[in-house]
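User: Hi! I'm working on a homework problem where we have to compare a predicted structure to a textbook description. Could you give me the structure for the chain below?
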Amino acid sequence: MKKLKANIYYETSYSGATVGALLLPQAAVLVDAPLQPEQGRQWLADLKGAGAVGRRLVVNLDAHPDRTLGVQTLEAQVLAHREVVRQIRRRAAIFKALKQESGAEWEETPGLSGLRWILPRLTFAEQIALNFGPDSLRLEHRPGPNPGASWLVAPEEKVVFVGDTLTLGEPPFLAHADIETWLEQLDALSGRAFKDYTIIAGRGGKAGATDISAMRRLLKDVHGRLQRLAKKKTAEDEIEKLAAKLTEKYRPTVRRQLLFEQRLRHGMLAYFARQFGSGKVRQVA
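Assistant: Happy to help. Predicted structure tokens:
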């Protein structure tokens, strides 16, 4: 468990997404959930040792199973963008770990079948302020990587949790992406409003300006390459090759090489179908 400020923590060692916690006198505000139940229980125990009170609120930064499936273990109220609710409602109430190839962490994690999806009961549209006495937080809708993506902002402490807007050391998820909007969010993150903020990425933890620039370059490169494939009959085969080539840039371990390649292939195929199917062409700035 890594300490950022007197009352703000994050952890990158659990399966799934990076998780965070803001330990306030009135409540513990938890950012996403560890994927595995035993890791969720360990997270709660560690936070209790750090002074967390019993009242808990979980903020889901999007609907991805890696960050939402483990919420059941945290036994808390849940807050998320209303699009997250819509996406979770489309799933079966009880999770069954059927094999997929989207390159998500849950696909490589045993013991998840039987968990229950927890539907957020607190939702917002564009922005919501959370006031806990003298402490205030802000949850902002920041689509791009996912239609329901959000950032949790702690203005007084100058900390922002940005979810999968940034991924460090591993590829992003592109299947539900709007790259043009995503690039706008990266511009905002590197702008004046978040100057001097500590940025916590949804995968990999603490991030900086070079990470924002690297993500921007990758997204523009992927969009450009896929756009050039729009009129080719061999587009699917070319995307397979591109996924393998992009995976090499992350220098993954043997175990994670297949996972990363699957993630990129699945994401780019889905993005290509949405953006460039039937001869559609979109430019990004």
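For your comparison, note the following. Residues 254-276 form the longest helix (23 residues). Helices lie at 37-49, 65-68, 71-74, 82-89, 179-189, 209-228, 235-248, 254-276. Good luck with the assignment!
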